[in-house]
Amino acid sequence: MTAISREDVAHLAKLARVEMTPVELDHMATELDHILSAVKRVQEVATQDIQPTSHPLAMTNIFRDDVVKPSLTNSEALSGAPAKIDGRFKVPQILGEE
Amino acid sequence: MTLDYLDYKAATEKYEPTLGLEVHVELNTKSKMFCSCATEFGAEPNTQTCPVCLGLPGALPVVNAKAIESSILIGLALNCSIAPYSRFARKNYFYPDMPKNFQTSQYDEPICVDGYLDVEVETDDGAKVFRVDIERVHMEEDTGKSLHVGGSTGRIHGAEYSLLDYNRAGIPLVEIVTRIVPGTGKYAPQVARAYVTELRDILRSLGVSDVKMEQGSLRCDANLSLAPIGSGELGTRSETKNVNSLRSVERAVSGEIERQANRLQAGERIVQETRHFLEESGQTRPGRSKEEAEDYRYFPEPDLVPITPDANWIEELRKRIPEKPSIRRKRLQTEWDCPDKEMTSLVNAELLDVVEETIELGAEPTRARTWWLGEISRLANEKEVLPTSLITTEFVAEIIALIVAGELTDKLARQVVEGVVNGEGSPKEVIEKRGLKVVSDDTALMLAIESAISAQPDTAERVRGGNIPAAGALIGAVMKATGGQADAAKVRELLLRHLGQGE
After folding, report:
1. How would residue B88 be classed by pLDDT, with cut points 50, 70 and 90?
2. Residue B153 touches partner A, C-beta closer than 8 Å
3. Which parts of B302-456 are beta strand (E)?
4. Total structural domains in chain A?
5. Is residue A88 a part of any domain in this protein?
6. With contacts defined as CB-CB under 8 Å, which chain A residues touch B275?
7. Residue A66 placed within a domain
8. Do A89 and B96 touch (CB under 8 A)?
């Protein structure tokens, strides 16, 4: 039994805005299944007293003071933009949402 | 079968509303949440951005300590527990106002949990306190601003393209989420308004935000569902966004109660959806459907380490929590013996602080209120600035002290205020430069009185004959001769005595 279906992969691809062919979907479903079963084995080992790790460093409370530093200029900020108007990023029509 | 339309009263006699509120507040830190860009409102587009808030590859965020402090202050003021360990999480979605394609937020480990806020609402049985339980207070970042171009409405539908300004992207945002508020019945709209009002006042008293609803630094979403009274069920909820004033909070909730009641009445089902509040009509219209939108795939933010606030730090912050604004208002009103209406004016004009300071500096409460609400507010209105920007509390207290000491009349004091406001210096300097001392020197006054009498001998004769009201003309002449700087009561006393009518 597979933990992840072809439909699951199609859904994730849509959420991640990745275009995938039917062949790629099949391939990825198999690959992700391998990955998830590996994760499942790790989960068998993890117990209540093991803190989940979101990053490898045992550090907390890394803060900076609330001080303003120079930003990019408008033209620097927009230098990588495919399209711009009046100092703003121009993006294609946004559909379906408000 | 035709059904009668249920008005608000009929709707709440049949259905029990369940309310939940989410308030977003922009913190007033100088720099952004995860980078050092400025947060100033109204700057030229895309001049307050950097690789971090533009989501450029390789950029690394660092948390603003002040934002953490403000969030803890908010939690403490709302009676929350402060989490000993909390983390940021990525909320993934694609939308152009979020340049990273995820919002850095908090998910299952918010910084503050389990608080409450008591709010008072006028009911048919007098004032009643409703407890609003706070589920969580969490930190996140604001999005950029979009401008939809093309189409007829300036709205997103029919727009040809959109323009993005990321100055606002990354400004610290705190979201305060209530649990469902049960048992409000027909008072749900008033409870919602009272909650947002009280919350706004608390945030202002903490000094953590500008809390300007009209500028979007405080935003409210209202969740509402209905169930038949006594059914013990929980209906499907809608979430109304775009509620941009306190009055709108109340209207949005009552409008939504009426809309849902009539749908249920007609046997239709309530769709779980986001609705937008329309300021003009007080109605809501549907926005995006929730069922598809909510798949954010949260996961712990790998670029930020956990936050573990030190207990001593929390206790230090707890000491800074001021008196709850509603309690302070009641206390001051009693201390000042201030009528309800005037108190409301002071609160609405945001003059409580300065009046309190002026009184602490020795001014008598009634005069302090009158000067701030009256002359100073009038001048501020004329100049279209805030009254508090015109004159210091020290100067107002000094001017009031001079009035009480009889060295200034109200009329002269107004001129002193005007002089101070126009930058002519301190009250003393203005009095000096403009020569605004009350003439109370008896000799100078007597000279003026005598010349008034000799100018109007007939009038003086009538006063001598017992016609006291006729003295008005003479007093007027004296006041004119002294340039309005004499104490009118003193003039009257001297004049009447001189004409043999004194007691």
Report:
1. very high
2. no
3. none
4. 1
5. no
6. none
7. no
8. yes
Q: Domain residues of chain B, as ranges?
A: 8-297, 324-434, 442-498
Distance (Å) from the alpha carbon of A35 to chain B's nearest alpha carbon = 17
Residues 13-32 on A with a CB inside 8 Å of B are 15, 17
Asked whether the whole model's pTM tops 0.90, one would answer: no
Q: Which two tokens stand for residue B413?
A: 């004091």
Among A65, A85, A93, most B C-beta atoms within 10 A, so best to mutate, is: A93
Cβ contact A67–B63 (<8 Å): no
pLDDT tens, residue order, chain A (98 aa): 467 889 999 999 988 889 999 999 999 999 999 999 998 888 888 777 777 777 777 899 999 999 999 999 999 999 999 999 999 999 987 764 44
Q: Looking at the domain assignment, is residue A35 inside a domain?
A: yes
CB-nearest to A54 from B63, B96, B300 is B300
Contact state of B155 with A96 under an 8 Å Cβ cutoff = no
B391 vs B369: CA distance, rounded Å: 14
Q: How far is B303 from chain A (nearest CA, A)?
A: 8
Question: What does residue A14 show for φ and ψ, rounded to 5 degrees?
Answer: -65, -45
Cβ of A92 and B161 within 8 Å?
A: yes
Sheet holding B284-289, edge to edge: B81-82, B112-123, B126-141, B172-178, B15-26, B218-228, B238-243, B273-277, B284-289
Q: Is residue A92 part of a domain?
A: no
Which domain range does residue A31 map to? 6-41
CATH number at residue A31: 1.10.20
Q: Is the ipTM of this complex over 0.85?
A: yes
- The answer to whether the CB atoms of B162 and A93 lie below 8 A apart is yes
Contact assessment for residue B18 and residue B256, using Cβ atoms and an 8 Å cutoff: no
> Span B442-498: which CATH code?
1.10.10
pLDDT value at residue B291: 46
Query: At residue B180, what are phi and psi to the nearest 5 degrees?
Result: -65, 140
